[in-house]
Amino acid sequence: MIHESGPHGCTVPAPAEYVLRAEGIGKSFGGVEVLSSASLWAEPGRVTTLLGRNGCGKTTLMRIAAGRLGPDWGVVKYRGRVRVAGGLAAMARDGLMFVPQGSLLCPSYRVEDHFRALRHAFPVSNCAFSAPDLDAAVERFRLGPLLEQRTWTLSGGEKMRVSVALAVARRPLVLLIDEPFVGVQPKDQEMVADALRALADEGCAVVTSGHDVRVLMEVSDAIIWCTAGTTHHLGTPADAASSDQFRREYLGAFA
Amino acid sequence: MIWIVLKGFGAGGVILVGGSPVAAFVAFPVATLPLVFVVLVAVRIDMARQSEAVFLANLGWPFRRIAVSLTVLIVVLDGAVALLAS
After folding, report:
1. Is A89 on the interface with B (CB under 8 A)?
2. pLDDT, tens digit, 9 for 90 and up, residues B42-74
3. What ipTM, to 2 d.p.?
4. Residue A59 forms beta bridges with which residues?
5. Does A118 touch chain B (CB under 8 A)?
């Protein structure tokens, strides 16, 4: 296993070990540069977390990596192939799942409809991922009482629980989940964190983001710090916590 | 549904300017193109509003595929109506 040195002296995996890699990404909106040279990767069996202050471009980077947005420059590779904007559907058929900030759900659909659609879209197992295990996910996330509800009636935390349950049922190769702990009560945060950890332990490459530092640091294997339009790969959460610059500029009093 | 409404408006417009309502239905395929455009734009906007685009993409369904399905459906419906009306 060949490793290269990361910007902060940490080790990062060799390119062959990435299943998803967004590299040298730049993006501007209306002349305002959000990202200048940011990178993000997903490795099987690991939870990688993107941290950074509000407006630093975490969501933009996640959306570009998921094929929902085109970069101004830079390249996104998924399973060894270069992917373009609008490519989420093709990557999804190939095992990727993207849960955007807020939730994945359609407001006018019932919770149950989402599970039905998932079962319809991925009815059989193949070598890449298993067939959706819907009943187990519904039970695990205590969604029974919510199944008949329209999703616009759910709270933010309930929506995220349903979104994560869909991801667990889908068992993707790569899960990109943007800010999974926003609006989620502490007890459910634990449930969501356990689910992300379990997915990674089964071999899924999980990439997440957010500001809930305590729970994100607990669940993560690797931390990427997004700041000033670029990214710094800090290594493990322990490595990140020992970075003076990261503590001074992001963690603040939390450290 | 949008197709029915637009065809209804089309027929209504033709009657208002003194034409035969049949003329509104036999204008295939010239009238079909703007109809397809309006339907696709309306569906795209509604899908974005309902967050359906991301959910369907996660199921492996790009909007392109939905657009092709809708276009085929509209062309078939318009063609069938034009055939019946003529």
Report:
1. yes
2. 888 887 777 788 999 999 988 888 889 888 888
3. 0.83
4. none
5. yes
